[in-house]
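testing teh design pipeline on a random one, pls ignore if ur not involved
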């Protein structure tokens, strides 16, 4: 991923559109390691600090059967994933922002994602996780917005066709 100021600004806007973040264990641990204070002086560019503050302040839910506890403004989600996420979605507010690879696949299988955003980066790689690998059914999507970022990345937002 090509991290630039535009991408981080866009990520802040996405986080501000949600009441909470929903992560699986791996994504939670990766984001916590990268963004939880304190970062040493000069550890990252100044333009990354607004994102660090925004994600640090955000309420987080972590889906994990292996973690005993979480902090960094987070709480564990246990039990049946579908039931737990449906309960979170019923709470008043703007909704949840989901990140990761395995969790979005599971939520797609359950029909619990209302909107997808894919950021296509201008870099080819021959390794890494494959999004939605093993999805058991087609999910037809309708493009609702498109944003070109300064790096050449394109953020495309879709809703499932129902």
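output:
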């Amino acid at each position: 991923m090509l991290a630039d100021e535009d991408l981080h600004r866009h990520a802040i806007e996405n986080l501000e559109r949600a009441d909470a973040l929903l992560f699986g264990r791996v994504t939670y641990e990766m984001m916590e390691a990268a963004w939880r204070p304190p970062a040493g002086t000069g550890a990252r560019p100044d333009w990354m600090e607004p994102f660090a503050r925004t994600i640090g302040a955000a309420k987080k839910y972590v889906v994990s059967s292996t973690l005993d506890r979480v902090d960094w403004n987070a709480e564990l989600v246990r039990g049946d994933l579908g039931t737990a996420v449906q309960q979170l979605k019923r709470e008043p507010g703007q909704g949840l922002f989901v990140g990761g690879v395995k969790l979005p696949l599971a939520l797609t299988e359950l029909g619990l994602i209302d909107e997808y955003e894919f950021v296509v980066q201008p870099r080819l790689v021959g390794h890494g996780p494959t999004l939605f690998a093993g999805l058991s059914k087609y999910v037809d999507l309708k493009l609702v917005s498109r944003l070109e970022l300064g790096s050449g990345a394109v953020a495309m937002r879709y809703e499932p066709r129902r």
